[in-house]
Each structure stands twice: as structure tokens, then as C-alpha cells.
Amino acid sequence: MDIAILSLDGLTRHGIIVAELATAQALNPGMLCVPRGTGADLTATNPPQPGGPMERRIPAYLFRDRFTGAELAGITGLAYGGLGDATAQVMLLKIATASEGINLDSAETIGGLDYLIAKGKLTAGRKAEILA
Fold this sequence. Notes:
Number of domains: 2
Oligomer: single chain
Strand order of the largest sheet: 2-1-3
Strand content: 5-15%
């Protein structure tokens, strides 16, 4: 059985092949072990912390698709037009390579959207829609 081993922050740390789920759990105390290929490895990520809310993480392509074509064109123009904007370039690179998805509640995501508002590429209303 192919098991995904997830840390408490919900990120896949590694996978192992074992005969039973119980074996994986015994070998990885304090980690969340879920079978791969069942969908559980995608939906069981980011377990809630004691006393804390569950993290809202979505695949990067779904995050990207929350932006309109005009917004994406504006962000790309900001990143690569003229002298270029290194912050916007890094944001686009992180979205393109975020294999663990995008945490909608992280300071980095919220700060990135605030940066785009400051640069005139998003409105506060659109930020709220994107994060909803």
C-alpha cells in the first residue's frame, strides 16, 4: 500500500510502501498517514491544530483561476513589463511552482494580494472574492 506521510502542517513529507496503514502510523508517530490514490491524500491534508481553525489550502491552478484574464494580464505586465517588478515575478513563480497548493489564510498570500492592490492591479473587493 502506498502511503502519504503528512506533517501536522499538512504538507506531504514523503511516501512509503507498507502492507498496512497501521504499520505506516507506527513508523511515523505524530504524522498523518493516508493511502495515496484514494483522494484521501488530497483531502486529509492540513488537519486542524488543537484550538485552531483548519487551514484553507487549494491547488495552485484553482487559485490562479480565481483571477480574471485582465487581472492576470495586468499582473504579468507588472512583473515583466518595463524594468520588471521582482516582487510580482516571485509571486507568479511561487504560484506556478506551488506543488503543495496555496494557503488562502497565510500572511504571504494575503500580503501578496495587498501588494497587488497597492500596485493598482487588484481592488480590495476582488481580494475578498479571491480569498473567499
